[in-house]
Structures are given as C-alpha cells and as structure tokens.
C-alpha cells in the first residue's frame, strides 16, 4: 500500500486525503490545529463554491452539508454611480447551484471523517526540517498548507504572477439578520457590488456553526477608503465599520443590513495577500522533493471567488494523476507534469482574477452594462464563475465582446 503524507488540512489537503483514502492509500494528514480548534476558531474565507467543485465533493461523497446549506441560484452585479445610486443592477442564473459552507464546519467535519475512516491524523505545525525526515519515509509528501510559512519552499513564478503586492484589503463579517434582496426575494444569489476605483462588496449566504447566515465581504483598493480595517481588533467595531462603508458606498445593500448582528465572537477576518503562482516542486535541504497543492501553488485574490474552487479542482486533478501513476516513483518529472495538468485548467481562473483586479477596460464595462438588458449575457457571465475558460470567448478581447453582444442583441430583437 502506498504511503502518502499531506501537510495542511484545508480544502485541498482534506479533499485529497479523503480521496486517496477512498482509493486504498495509506494516508497521514498533518494539521496545525485540531478539529475543535478549527470549529471554534476564526472564520477563514467566504468559500463560495460553484457547480464543478461541488460535484468533485459529491463524487467523493463528501457533500455532507448540501441539504442544510443555502442553495445559491445566481450571481448579481451592481455598479455604484458617483451619486451612490446604481448605474447597473442585474442577476444571472446558474446552470447548477453554488454553496458556501463555513470552512470551520467543513474542515472540522472532514477531519473527523478522515479519522473515523482509519486515517492517521497528526496535530503538528510542520517545519521544513520535519519534511526532510518524512520525505524519506513516505512515497509522496504533499504540502497543502495554504498561505503559511511553508510556501517559502516553493519559488514564486514571476511569469505567472503579475502582482508582487496585495491588490485588495480584505474584510469579512458573518452575520445573522440580513434581509433578502428585494429584487429577487424568492432565491439566493451572490451579490457583487462594484464601487469603481474604491473596491467591491460581496454579499452571500452561507452555512456557519450557528446555521444559515450571510457574509458581508469588502475588498478595498489599498490606501483607499475601504482600507479601513487594519488594527481593528474588536469584532463589533469591525461590523460597525463594515456597515458605515455600506451606508456610504452601497446604500441599497445597507438597506437590508440595518438589523444584522455577528454570528459569533470569531465571525470577522481582515487581511491582505499578493496573488501568487509558485513552482510546484519544493526541494528540501536533505535533497527530498515535495509537491505543492492548492493555495501553496496557486493563490488567487478572492475577488472572483476562485480559491476554494481551484483548491478542489487541484485535489481532484492530483488524485487522478496519483492513481494513474500506479506503483511508479513520484519523481520530479511526474510532479511537474501533475501540476501542469492542473495548470492547464486553472490558468483561466488566474488570468481572469488578475484581470478583475485592474481597472476594467471599456469593453468590459459595456459587457457588464449590457447584461442588464440582455439576460443571456447575465447568465453566461454568472456561469463563468464556475467555468472561467468560457471567458476567453467573450471577455478579454474587445472584438470578441462586441461580436458576442451583437449576436445576443440580434437574437433578442
Ligand atoms: C477573505 C477570503 C475570502 C475568500 N472567498 C472565497 C470564495 O468565496 N470562494 C473561493 O473559492 N475561495 C475563496 N477564498 C479562497 C479560499 O479560502 C482558499 O483559496 C482555499 O481555502 C485554499 O485551500 P487550501 O487547502 O489550499 O488552503 P487552506 O484552506 O488555507 O488550508 C491550509 C491549512 O493548512 C494549515 N497549515 C498551515 N501551515 C501549516 C503547517 N506548517 N503545518 C500543518 N498545517 C498547516 C492551515 O491551518 C490550514 O488549515 C477566500 C479567501 C479569503 C482570505
């Protein structure tokens, strides 16, 4: 039986550990926190996952919370006008629903399942020196430790990382008591509110430790008015600031948020990081090799909600590569090829996410505006969150955008 070590129990590490376990591999998982510490700890993400990634979880029978988590049926875009009214406001419908399950719930639950199914869980914050030892005793060591210190083993790929500094200041609050969007009270949607030059507010439902909740998530251009959460330690002050900024920049969202309260004492998160693609193979001081997984190798800014989706797709693709490799050695050539196979898909998410961090060109503004009059455009844009490869056909190049809009307008006429 092949022996695998996975370091880091997040979306990618746990999905891969449980997947390998189901295929009969002997898996050891190393986590720097216990399930209870994760469950009672701070929120980590907004973790909205779209159809393909959710299907990967279903295929492994890991969709434990699917019936409890709110079904997110669409994605809406609003653009603030200079007078804080809405220049644009529409909602597109997904072909398959999305869901957000608080990672505190999911990772704690998956970790317990891994142990119940006979997996070996080691609670330990791994250091590079530990990995040196383990690389000699396991057939394959994979590092899925997110954006933690272990990423330093994996060189930054400058050709795939256009930004060397954070492009947004992030501020998340999980709340109870948010009202529905009056435009579509009958279904839930992720609402993306764009405030040109200032940042974005995302609002979405989730399943958290206390049941259904909603997330208020500001992404602020660094140094601008939304970059207002650094040093805020008190959760109630964090929420008050979130709401003040909503009242000022997105009053239509504030209108449904006047009665909200935080879900728990750890319901807020603030931070920032530079989106980074790394080289997939880490070389240890003793000469051993380790393979990077998930955010370790591809860390996107959350502006397009791709990180957990990419982490899930990475775990899915790596699982196939490992199983197909059979009993052969997991050498550097295989590691690179395994990552390349994942990159072939995930490069679309990276290209799009990095594009969304820059000021939008005119043809993108036209596209987003036109979606308000052309429901098929709104639907296609919404579904691109699940399959960013489709954006190559209508988003990046003005000629393709114009041709697509002309085609849809013609069909509607
Ligand atoms: C504010 C915010 C909002 C987001 N919103 C979305 C969204 O809506 N949709 C989406 O798809 N993505 C979103 N993301 C991104 C998503 O959360 C991540 O991309 C995803 O969690 C990455 O999964 P991972 O398994 O690679 O890493 P992680 O989920 O970060 O897991 C890494 C794990 O490794 C552990 N670890 C770290 N160091 C060590 C060590 N030395 N030893 C042992 N264990 C260690 C950590 O504690 C953690 O449990 C968001 C991120 C943020 C910050």
UniProtKB/TrEMBL annotation:
It comes from the Bacteria. Residues 146-256 form the Styrene monooxygenase StyA putative substrate binding domain. InterPro entries: FAD/NAD-bd_sf, StyA_sbd. Pfam families: Smoa_sbd. This is 2-polyprenyl-6-methoxyphenol hydroxylase-like FAD-dependent oxidoreductase. It comes from Streptomyces clavifer. The lineage of its organism: Bacteria, Bacillati, Actinomycetota, Actinomycetes, Kitasatosporales.
